[in-house]
Amino acid sequence: MNALGGGNYAFETIGSTYRVVFPYRKEWLRIVSSGLVLVVLPYLLFFGNLGPLFATGFTPVNLTTLIIFGVLVVVAGLMVLELLWQLVGKEVVEVSDDAVVMAHQIFGIGLSKRFPADKIGGIFVSQQNSWAGVGSMRRDYRFFNFSRGWVALTSGKSLLGRPLTYRFGTSLDASEAGDVVTLILSRFPQYKVESRPAD
Q1: Residue 120's domain is classified under what CATH number?
Q2: How many CB atoms are located within 10 Å of the residue 82 CB?
Q3: Is the pLDDT of residue 140 over 70?
């Protein structure tokens, strides 16, 4: 195993596979807001208006309260996931002759997307700033989102026939993204883009 990397990524070779690990880019506004939601939710669940749910038992009259309780529990779970992703999340990309696998991991567990080599249109430095409006609090859960970062990969087509673009490397700058793409393409030239798509 050989390892190297820049300030924002670790790069290693495992047999014939390249593996690149990036810490997820921290968005402090989202971290603070998720933390605040997690402070307020327990109050609502146990001491606020839902407290009588536990005192009176579950009757048909309390069905609405039970539904609200369920929704708040789901929201709390998503906030915990988002907070952990922001604090300790890692993007892991494994590149081989057969496929590229992109994963979002928290403590080594998470989601992944596999792109077979014959379905990949190319790997390149994205020209689109996928972090535009980063300060906005638009509620898309970053853990589930594979469209952010400076390194792009095209695979498949949308319903309108445009190439689907997936991204990784959120913690990189444009120069580091170029270094990562160069490292990948030096070993896997089949992923070189013939003509750069409009991402």
Answers
A1: 2.30.29
A2: 23
A3: no
Asked whether residue 169 is assigned to any structural domain, the reply reads yes
Q: Which two tokens stand for residue 94?
A: 């494994």
Where does a domain end: 86, 102, 133?
86
**What's the whole-model pTM score?**
0.74
**The dihedral sign for the CA sequence 89, 75, 34, 144:** positive
Helix (H, G, I), strand (E, B) or coil at 25: coil
- Does residue 93 share a domain with residue 72? no
Structural domain span for residue 73: 31-86
The whole-angstrom separation of Cα 56 and Cα 48 is: 14
Which tens digit of pLDDT belongs to each residue from 156-183?
887 887 888 899 888 888 888 888 999 9
Region of residue 124 (left: phi > 0; alpha: psi -120 to 50; beta: else): beta
Alpha-carbon span 130 to 152, nearest angstrom: 10
Measured distance CA(138)–CA(152) in Å, rounded? 22
What pLDDT is stored for residue 134 in this prediction?
43
Backbone φ and ψ for 153, nearest 5 degrees, come out as: -140, 130
122 in a structural domain: yes
What the block records as the tokens of 70 is: 């369920």
Would you put residue 21 in left (φ > 0), alpha (ψ -120 to 50) or beta?
Answer: beta
> Within this chain, do residues 51 and 77 fall inside the same structural domain, yes or no?
yes
